[in-house]
Structure to design on (204 residues):
């Protein structure tokens, strides 16, 4: 079976990228990382992949006159590496219409809350401030909104009375590292069918 080629977009720490890499190494995920693209030259994510034989590329937004040109450069790099599925893993930019059209139905994101609750930045702090008793993470396809695309998988974690933003973020991150490779695996196995807002997971 041909392995689905992933293009992973990162901006920072890269723990989800690492979890995806580990899942591939362990043969739990039958995919291949074609390229890792960072918009931040100092991203820890890039250092994590050093020595693993993964191609990493830095494409900085400030080097381009506008967002469209920046995204064209990202798209060109993804195409160069024959990327089928674009995986956003802590990529801190909202993608524009043209890019989303180009990779329509082939862009995934992970968000550290149970969407549609707490979209956007600081989702864990939003959950603490609101006082919810349960939060979690969501893997979804990307559409033109912010964290609004069809939901693929969600996993809940409890929110304890003594939690702060960091303790909750740590608990959520732990499940992110399991759920993201699982969602990508479902895509690679051709088991995700988008029906309007719903993503149906077909049997093996
Ligand atoms: C994660 O919490 C993810 O849900 C959010 O950004 C964070 C990225 O963390 N989109 P990392 O860079 O994968 O460690």
């Amino acid at each position: 079976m041909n392995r689905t080629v992933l293009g992973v977009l990162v901006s920072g720490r890269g723990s989800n990228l690492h979890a995806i890499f580990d899942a591939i190494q362990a043969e739990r995920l039958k995919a291949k990382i074609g390229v890792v693209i960072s918009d931040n030259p100092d991203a820890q994510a890039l250092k994590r992949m050093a020595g693993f034989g993964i191609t990493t590329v830095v494409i900085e937004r400030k080097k381009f006159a506008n967002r469209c040109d920046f995204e064209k450069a990202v798209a060109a790099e993804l195409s160069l590496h024959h990327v089928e599925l674009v995986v956003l893993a802590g990529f801190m930019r909202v993608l524009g219409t043209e890019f989303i059209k180009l990779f329509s139905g082939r862009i995934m994101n992970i968000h550290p809350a149970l969407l549609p609750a707490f979209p956007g930045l600081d989702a864990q702090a939003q959950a603490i401030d609101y006082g919810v008793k349960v939060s979690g993470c969501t893997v979804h396809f990307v559409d033109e909104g912010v964290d609004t695309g069809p939901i693929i998988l969600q996993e809940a974690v409890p929110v304890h009375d003594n939690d702060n933003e960091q303790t909750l973020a740590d608990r959520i991150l732990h499940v992110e590292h399991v759920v993201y490779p699982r969602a990508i695996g479902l895509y690679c196995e051709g088991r995700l069918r988008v029906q309007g807002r719903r993503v149906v997971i077909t049997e093996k």
Observations:
- The longest strand covers residues 31-38.
- Residues 63 and 92 are 17 Å apart (CA to CA).
- Residues 165-188 form the longest helix (24 residues).
